[in-house]
Specification:
heterodimer; A: mainly beta; Protocatechuate 3,4-Dioxygenase, subunit A; nine-stranded mixed β-sheet; 10 strands; B: mainly beta; five-stranded mixed β-sheet; four-stranded antiparallel β-sheet; 9% helix; binds fe (ii) ion
Chain lengths: 194, 242
């Protein structure tokens, strides 16, 4: 199937400023319960990941939505009862940080580093973008087939750093939309076109 | 490189939409597939995860005229909004989570950040969700959303719209968009709508459908959504050639 015979795609539009209404309605008074939260449960070491999203002026964005997708601690995406998908906004905390409670993923394959896939949406973005969270304390990063092929000076932008915390093991991961510290964003492989 | 696919979506930076200037990525995204020819990233988390059928909304979640009632009915014209989620080959996408949110009939969101001086409706939340059936169909019952002002430029008004979020099987099909209504005079003045390449704009406008319209009850609008991907996964190639 090539692109010429495919149906034309529905265009993307921004999530706008009010996405929490539809995407986390349990935060508003209603009959809609939680469906996708900022929590992933599964086998593995419990961790939290938190951070901020910075715009091109270096200001933290208070209406970004982040979704994460990951394997469990054994590197499995399809373990029974496991859904490695969560979402969080940056508008709940006073400092505009997001927070996920999850488990540290295992690597999918031998020689790969563990990572979390993240989708970034916000008011002002007309189309979402993808990034990956690698862990700064993983030796396997040095062999990971994707990580080592990135320009060296940009790899840093994908590293979550371990931070001291009273509860679970905690990692900090900030997203920079533009500038010298701009996060590496990815385009996904497309099964039909190219 | 697919010209058609590229031309469907707005650019990251569209200066008429002021917030886009500082918020879209500054550099071109890196093509994950081309980064590593030996280890195709089709083996990665991005394409390995299968999310269809994972989510189970509540029974009334799809009915915005009922899911937030507090002893009364929401005000406004009732609508049925329905359509199909399809992949690029035209295959229906079943088990897809469709989430929507919108302003009430007066153009006001039930959200703390909305400062528009228009009444809230105590019986209307403006959020709903459902999962597509085997034919890829979704269906919502709701209220005609009102237009509302915003601060992008002088006398800026958003055309009436419903926000849609679509979570299909693979991440390549992830989509957030907005559905508009035919004949809305505000469309020509809206930089968010206009950010979409000319040829693709009409795909964001629902079609009035007398067949979906329920006598004595609600007007019907049809809105199909085509998401990227073939629907065929590495494990299951059936149906991809239809
Ligand atoms: Fe809106």
């Amino acid at each position: 199937m090539n692109d010429e015979t495919g149906l034309p795609l529905t265009p993307s539009q921004t999530v706008g400023p009010y996405f929490t209404l539809g995407l986390t309605p349990e935060k508003h008074e209603s009959g809609l319960g939680p469906l996708i939260t900022n929590e992933i449960r599964g086998e593995g070491e419990p961790i939290t990941i938190h951070g901020k999203v910075f715009d091109g002026a270096g200001e933290p964005v208070n209406d970004a939505m982040l979704e994460i997708i990951q394997a469990d601690g054994n590197g499995r995406l399809d373990a029974p009862g496991f859904t490695g998908f969560a979402r969080a906004g940056t508008g709940d905390a006073v400092d505009n940080s997001y927070r996920f409670t999850t488990v540290k993923p295992g690597p999918l394959g031998k020689g790969e580093a563990p990572y979390i896939c993240m989708i970034v949406f916000m008011r002002g973005m007309l189309l979402h973008t993808f990034t990956r969270i690698y862990f700064a304390d993983e030796a396997a990063n040095a062999n990971d087939p994707v990580f080592i092929r990135l320009p060296e000076h940009r790899r840093e932008s994908l590293l979550a750093r371990h931070v001291e915390s009273v509860d679970a093991v905690s990692y900090e991961f900030n997203v920079h939309m533009q500038g010298d510290r701009e996060t590496v964003f990815f385009k996904l492989p497309h099964p039909i076109a190219d | 490189m697919s010209g058609k696919r590229r031309s469907a979506h707005p650019p990251y930076t569209y200066p008429d939409y002021k917030s886009s200037i500082l918020r879209g990525p500054g550099r071109d995204p890196i093509d994950l597939d081309r980064l590593d020819a030996k280890h195709p990233s089709s083996m990665g988390v991005e394409s390995g995860v299968l999310l269809a059928g994972r989510f189970r909304p509540g029974e009334l979640d799809h009915d915005l005229t009922r899911n937030a009632r507090r002893g009364g009915e929401p005000l406004g014209e009732r609508l049925v909004v329905s359509g199909r989620v399809l992949d690029e080959c035209g295959n229906p996408a079943p088990g897809v989570l469709v989430e929507i949110w919108q302003a009430n009939a007066a153009g006001r969101y039930l959200h703390k950040a909305d400062e528009h001086d228009a009444p809230v409706d105590p019986n209307f939340l403006g959020a709903g969700r459902c999962v597509t059936d085997r034919e890829g169909c979704y269906r919502f019952c709701t209220i005609q959303p009102g237009a509302y002002p915003w601060k992008n430029h002088h006398n800026a008004w958003r055309p009436r719209h419903i926000h849609f979020s679509v979570i299909g099987d693979s991440l390549v099909s992830r989509l957030v968009t907005q559905m508009y209504f035919p004949g809305d005079p505000l469309l020509d003045f809206d930089p968010i709508f206009e950010s979409v390449p000319d040829a693709a704009r009409s795909r964001l406008i629902a079609r009035f459908d007398l067949g979906l319209t329920q006598p004595e009850f609600a007007l019907g609008y049809h809105f199909d959504i085509v998401v990227a991907g073939s629907g065929a996964t590495p494990r299951d190639n059936h149906g991809s050639g239809k």
